[in-house]
Amino acid sequence: MIGAMPLEIVPADVSDLRQVLADHARYWGERDLRALHQPVLLREFGATCMVARAEDGIRGYLFGFVTPEQTGYVHLIATRDDSRGTGLGRRLYRHFTEIARSQGAVRLKAITSVTNKGSIAFHRTLGFDARVVEDYDGPGRPMVVFTRTL
Predict the structure, then answer these.
(1) Which backbone phi and psi does 101 adopt, to 5 degrees?
(2) What letters, b where the CB count within 10 A reaches 16 and e where it falls short, cover 130-148?
(3) Which pLDDT tens digit goes with each residue over 72-91?
(4) CA of 115: how far to CAs of 1, 80, 97, 111, 140, in Å?
(5) Are 25 and 50 in contact (CB under 8 A)?
(6) Is-contact 109 147, C-beta < 8 A?
(7) Average pLDDT over residues 15-39
(8) Which of 2, 122, 131, 147 is most solvent-facing, going by the fewest CB within 10 Å?
(9) What are the beta bridge partners of residue 74?
(10) Strand 129-133 to strand 71-79: parallel, antiparallel, or no bridges (unpaired)?
């Protein structure tokens, strides 16, 4: 529960994606990450994509998948502006970790921009190793790569 409102973490579907995109700024502020929200993720990796739903809508979500190399990759994780600091991001990661393990994952991975201090701090509190990889996202585009053994 967040506050007094019941919350459940359930598999996401394309209608959830439409809701998330309609409320994009509540999750991402001024950063426009809509292009990263691909319907194919939900259609092909539905078991590892989830939303945290309350009576007032989607409070947070995590879209991920398990690679053939047994890595549980978190493509996107976000909490709505009124749910930050409640532990919801941790809950979403715990849920994803359980599902990824059941699909054979032996490690987790995520990435973020080198300027995303909030994401870097969050992932470090979850026990991830963080390293900057130069040119990860193309020439001159370094990213922070997070990894954690399960």
Answers:
(1) -60, -40
(2) beeeeeeeeeeeebbbbeb
(3) 999 999 999 999 999 999 99
(4) 31, 20, 26, 12, 14
(5) no
(6) yes
(7) 96
(8) 131
(9) 64, 110
(10) unpaired
